[in-house]
C-alpha cells in the first residue's frame, strides 16, 4: 500500500501532483511519501509486536537499516514512530544521531569497522555492536579498554541458510564474507567473555535482502533459537536476539512478498517462551515503495531497425539498481492526459509503444527498462520510476560528474525539500588543480 496514485490522468503523491514538484524542484528528484513511510513503519512494528509481548521491557525493537535511505527527514520520521537504527559506518552513526536517535536504540553492523568508528559509537553509548569476526572482538576489546568503557556485543553468526535472492545480496551462505560460521559461535562467545572491555548481550544474524519467502527466515530463527539456548547454557546472559532485515517487497513484477503479519506470527511461534528481546533491521520494506524517482524525458531517439530509446535525465548514477542487479522498476508516465480533453472518448487512452528507457550516462548498463510497453513519451514528459526509495539515493554517485538529485518529502499537501539538489560547485568541493 502506498500513496502514489493517478487522479484524473495525473500521477500524484498524496495531495500533490508530481508535475508540481517537478516545476518547483526540477528533475531528477526523489519524492518520498510521509504517509507511506508511516504506514509501513506501523504495519511492520505491529506485526512483530506479539514476539515476547508478555514482558513490556522486552518489547521488540525495530532498528531501521539506515543504508536503505539515510535522509535525515526519513530517519527522524521513523524515530518518531519508535524506530531505532541499524548502522554500518561512522557516517550512518552521525546521521542517526543527527536525526535525534537515542544512542541506546542503535546497533552497529558491518564486516569491517575502523577504530575511529568504534570509538565514536562507544562514546555515543550504542545498544549493541554486532561483531562479525573473532578479530573484531579483539579489536573492539582493545578500543573499549583504551577508553575505559565496556562494549555491549553480539556476535553476528552466519546461519548458512539459502535465501533465494540476487547473489549480490545473499549474505548467509557458508561462502559469504559476513558473520562467523555457526560452528564457531560458542568459541567466539568464550573469547568475548575472556576479553576485557566486552560484555556479550546478544546474538545476531542477517540472511540477505529482497527475500520473497518465509522459509529461510524461519530456518534462520530456528537455528538462532537453538544457538541462543546453547550459549545461555554456557553461561552467557544474552538478552537481545537480532534477526536482521531482508523482507522482500513488490517491484511490480515477480515476487509476491511475505506479509509482515505472517513474518511476525512465524517469529512469535519459533521464539515462544524464549524470554528475549527481538531486534529486527528492516530497510527495504519500510522505504522502497515510499518513493519514486521523478525524471524528465530529454529526447527520444531511433536506434537500429525500429528500436526506440527514451533518454531521461536520471541515470545509473542516480539509481543504480537496474544497472547493478538487473532490477525491475515500474516506470509510469506522470501525465496521461496529453490533449485528452480535445480528443474523442475512445482516443483518450494513448496506445502503448515498446521502448528502452535509458539514462544519459556513458555506459551500456545505464538503462532502466528494455523493450517495455509504455504510453508514447516525448521530450519534456515526466516519468516516475517506482519503488525507488530503498537503495536509491543512498547508492547514488557522482559518476560522469553528475550532481546527485534533490530529495523531497510530501506530507499531505505539504512539500518539503529535505535535501537540496547538488550543485556543480558541490562536485568540486575539496579538490585542487
Ligand atoms: N541488516 C543488515 C546487517 C544488512 O546488511 C542489511 C542490508 C539490512 C539489515 C537491511 O536489509 P533489507 O531489509 O533492506 O533487505 N543494495 C541492494 C541491497 C543490499 C542490502 C544490504 N544489506 C539492493 O539495492 O537491492
Could you describe the 3D structure shown?
- With 433 residues, this protein is of the alpha/beta class.
- 27% of the residues lie in helices and 24% in strands.
- Strands 4, 14, 15, 16, 17, 18, 19, 20 and 21 form a 9-stranded mixed beta sheet that branches. An 8-stranded parallel β-barrel has the order 5-6-7-8-9-11-12-13, surrounded by 4 helices.
- α5 links the parallel β7 (106-108) and β8.
- The protein binds ligand LLP.
Helix fraction? 25-40%
The first-level CATH class of the largest domain is given as Alpha Beta
Largest sheet: 9 strands, mixed
Number of helices: 12
Q: pLDDT under 50 segments (min length 5)?
A: none
How many beta-strand elements?
21
CATH superfamily of the largest domain: Alanine racemase
Question: In the CATH scheme, what's the topology name of the largest domain?
Answer: TIM Barrel
How many discrete structural domains?
A: 2
Offer a few descriptive terms.
Lyase, Ornithine Decarboxylase, Chain A, domain 1; globular; single chain; binds ligand LLP; TIM Barrel
Could you write a compact summary of the structure shown?
The chain is α/β, with parallel strands linked by helices and 433 residues long. It is 27% helix and 24% strand. The protein has helices spanning 18-25, 34-48, 72-80, 90-98, 115-124, 134-146, 185-194, 215-233, 260-271, 284-287, 321-325, 424-428; strands at residues 4-7, 10-13, 16-17, 29-33, 61-65, 84-87, 106-108, 128-131, 151-158, 180-181, 198-204, 240-242, 277-280, 291-302, 308-312, 331-333, 353-358, 367-374, 382-385, 406-411, 414-419.
Amino acid at each position: 500500500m502506498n500513496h502514489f496514485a493517478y487522479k484524473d490522468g495525473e500521477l500524484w503523491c498524496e495531495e500533490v501532483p508530481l508535475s508540481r514538484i517537478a516545476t518547483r524542484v526540477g528533475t531528477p528528484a526523489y519524492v518520498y511519501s510521509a504517509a507511506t513511510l508511516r504506514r509501513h513503519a506501523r504495519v511492520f512494528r505491529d506485526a512483530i509486536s506479539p514476539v515476547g509481548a508478555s514482558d513490556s521491557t522486552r518489547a521488540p525493537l525495530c532498528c531501521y537499516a539506515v543504508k536503505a535511505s539515510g535522509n535525515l527527514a526519513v530517519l527522524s520520521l521513523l524515530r518518531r514512530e519508535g524506530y531505532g537504527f541499524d548502522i554500518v559506518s561512522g557516517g550512518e552513526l552521525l546521521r542517526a544521531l543527527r536525526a535525534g536517535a537515542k544512542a541506546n536504540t542503535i546497533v552497529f553492523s558491518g564486516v569491517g569497522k575502523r577504530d575511529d568508528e568504534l570509538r565514536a559509537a562507544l562514546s555515543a553509548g550504542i545498544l549493541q555492536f554486532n561483531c562479525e569476526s573473532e578479530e573484531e572482538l579483539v579489536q573492539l576489546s582493545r578500543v573499549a579498554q583504551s577508553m575505559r568503557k565496556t562494549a555491549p556485543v553480539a556476535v553476528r553468526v552466519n546461519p548458512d541458510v539459502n535465501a533465494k535472492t540476487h547473489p549480490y545480496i545473499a549474505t548467509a551462505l557458508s561462502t559469504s564474507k559476513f558473520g562467523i560460521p555457526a560452528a564457531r559461535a560458542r568459541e567466539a562467545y568464550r573469547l568475548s567473555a575472556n576479553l576485557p572491555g566486552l560484555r556479550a548481550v546478544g546474538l545476531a544474524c542477517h540472511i540477505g535482502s529482497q527475500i520473497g519467502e518465509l522459509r529461510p527466515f524461519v530456518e534462520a530463527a530456528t537455528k538462532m533459537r537453538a544457538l541462543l539456548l546453547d550459549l545461555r547454557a554456557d553461561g552467557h546472559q544474552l538478552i537481545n536476539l537480532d534477526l536482521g532485515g531482508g523482507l522482500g517487497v513488490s517491484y511490480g513484477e515477480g515476487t509476491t512478498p511475505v506479509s509482515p503479519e505472517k513474518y511476525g506470527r512465524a517469529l512469535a511461534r519459533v521464539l515462544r517462551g524464549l524470554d528475549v528481546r527481538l531486534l529486527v533491521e528492516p530497510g527495504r520494506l519500510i522505504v522502497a515503495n515510499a518513493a519514486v524517482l521523478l525524471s524528465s524525458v530529454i529526447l527520444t531517439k531511433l536506434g537500429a531497425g525500429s528500436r526506440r530509446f527514451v533518454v531521461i535525465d536520471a541515470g545509473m548514477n542516480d539509481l543504480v539498481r537496474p544497472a547493478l542487479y538487473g532490477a525491475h522498476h515500474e516506470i509510469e508516465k506522470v501525465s496521461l492526459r496529453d490533449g485528452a480533453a480535445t480528443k474523442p472518448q475512445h482516443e483518450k487512452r494513448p496506445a502503448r509503444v515498446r521502448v528502452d528507457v535509458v539514462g544519459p550516462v556513458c555506459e551500456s548498463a545505464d538503462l532502466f527498462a528494455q523493450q517495455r510497453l509504455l504510453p508514447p513519451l516525448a521530450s519534456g514528459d515526466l516519468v516516475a520510476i517506482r519503488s525507488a526509495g530503498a537503495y536509491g539515493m543512498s547508492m547514488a554517485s557522482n559518476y560522469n560528474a553528475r550532481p546527485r538529485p534533490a530529495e523531497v518529502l510530501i506530507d499531505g499537501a505539504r512539500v518539503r525539500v529535505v535535501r537540496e539538489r547538488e550543485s556543480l560547485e558541490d562536485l568540486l568541493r575539496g579538490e585542487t588543480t
